[in-house]
Design brief:
Alpha-Beta Plaits; 3 helices
Length: about 80
């Protein structure tokens, strides 16, 4: 399980397009936007590699200027199960 929060920056005129694109992505939720062009986003996906792939796709969205990872939590359930055996 991988849970991350990010701030994604765009120009004010691109907020609606970027928000729409992000909201359509699996495991991505846009929590808030600002008139200055910041979007607060969480990514909740089963695997860390899937989250990393999503982060890479954010940079490819037309109008995205910058992405900043604010928080990341990764829980390797398989490692816990192996240790318990």
């Amino acid at each position: 399980m991988s849970i991350s929060s990010l701030v994604i920056q765009t120009r004010p005129e691109n907020v609606a397009n970027v928000e729409s694109t992000l909201s359509a992505m699996n495991g991505v939720e846009v929590h808030t936007t600002t008139k200055e062009g910041n979007l607060v986003v969480t990514v909740d996906l089963p695997e860390d590699a899937q989250a990393a792939d999503a982060f890479s796709r954010f940079a490819e969205i037309k109008g995205v200027i910058n992405t900043s990872l604010i928080f990341n939590y990764f829980d390797n359930d398989n490692a816990d199960k192996e240790l318990a055996q």
